[in-house]
From TrEMBL:
Keyword Ligase: yes
InterPro entries cross-referenced by the UniProt entry: LigD_pol_dom, MtLigD_Pol-like, NHEJ_LigD
Residues annotated as domain DNA ligase D polymerase: 28-279
Signal peptide: none
A molecular function GO annotation: ligase activity
Protein origin, superkingdom: Bacteria
Annotated source species: Streptomyces phyllanthi
Keywords: Ligase
Protein's name according to its UniProt entry: ATP-dependent DNA ligase
């Protein structure tokens, strides 16, 4: 029988809690749900008011992995949804606004991906993002070098950047903006990616062409496009181990001398939150938004 759990007055049927989703560490679905419930205070503000794309992996990362953008069948009527414009026509998507919605979504076994805009202003970006993706044999160590250059360059334009691991191989940089058209933000991000390649031609590539990427860091500026999404801070990833897209300090970025230094698993996050709080919290403060130059 599927157990029924009450979460802030909402009835939730949580299934297969003993199922191992991450065989490398025997991390179960129940532990996934516990992780999200105990990280909710930090995670929810980064999800709130942003339509969520789910990258689902119900049988673990070695099973079927698929994106869900539309409201999944069987979604409870108390989960907030909204109509969102898309190039192929409007779609109804989920907004994870509270703890019951988060636990319900986590029960689907998912990565959380969100756009750089909120639902009330689609296509008006209030975030800038760079996805730094290393082409082997480059690693996150090289990503950190590029991140430090981008941080300084953004600072010259009055924009404060914050870093997090992708939870995969690379690093994400985010900044809070005064809302601006996504196309304009994408253009600005591309300009900086091109500048980074000119400054560090042996280390950086700004084009997506895969043949150019071995041994270099691809500065992906395209995730600023209105149609694109990025892994949300604190989301678990569908990897061999329960890695997290974890915010990191700039000191950690500066001191990154080996790839393993910036790998964080689900059990690492509660102690980090206790020590640092939410390192991405400045993104949520309207006083920290910056205009595009």
């Amino acid at each position: 029988m599927t157990p029924i759990t009450m979460v802030e007055g909402r009835r939730l049927a949580l299934s297969n809690l003993e199922k191992v989703l991450y065989p490398a560490t025997a991390f179960t679905k129940g532990e996934v749900l516990h992780y999200y419930a105990t990280t909710a205070d930090a995670l929810l503000p980064h999800l709130r008011d942003r339509p969520v794309s789910f990258l689902r992996y119900p049988d673990g990362p070695d099973g079927q992995v698929f994106f869900t953008k539309n409201v999944p069948p069987g979604t409870p009527d108390w989960v907030t949804t909204a109509e969102v414009p898309r190039s192929e026509g409007p779609a109804r998507m989920v907004l994870v606004q509270d703890l019951p919605s988060l636990v319900w979504a986590a029960n689907l076994v998912t990565e959380f991906h969100t756009p750089q805009w909120i639902v009330d202003a689609p296509g008006e970006a209030d975030r800038l993002v760079f996805d730094l993706d290393p082409g082997p044999p480059a690693t996150i160590v090289e990503c950190c070098r590029v991140a430090l250059w981008l941080r300084e360059r953004l600072g010259e334009d009055g924009i404060d950047a914050y870093a997090k691991t992708s939870g995969s191989k690379g690093l994400h940089l985010l900044a809070a903006l005064r809302p601006a058209p996504s196309a304009r933000v994408t253009e600005y991000a591309k300009e900086l990616a091109v500048a980074a390649e000119k400054a560090m031609p042996r280390l950086v590539v700004h084009r997506m062409t895969r043949s150019l990427r071995p041994g270099k860091v691809f500065v992906d500026w395209s995730q600023n496009a209105a149609r694109k999404t990025t892994a949300t801070p604190y989301t678990l990833r569908a990897r061999a181990e329960p890695t997290v897209s974890a915010p990191v300090t700039w000191e950690e970025v500066e001191d990154c001398g080996s790839p393993g230094r910036l790998v964080f698993l689900a059990p690492d996050i509660a102690p980090r939150l206790q020590d640092h709080g939410d390192l991405m919290a400045p993104l949520l403060d309207p006083r920290n938004t910056a205009p595009l130059p």
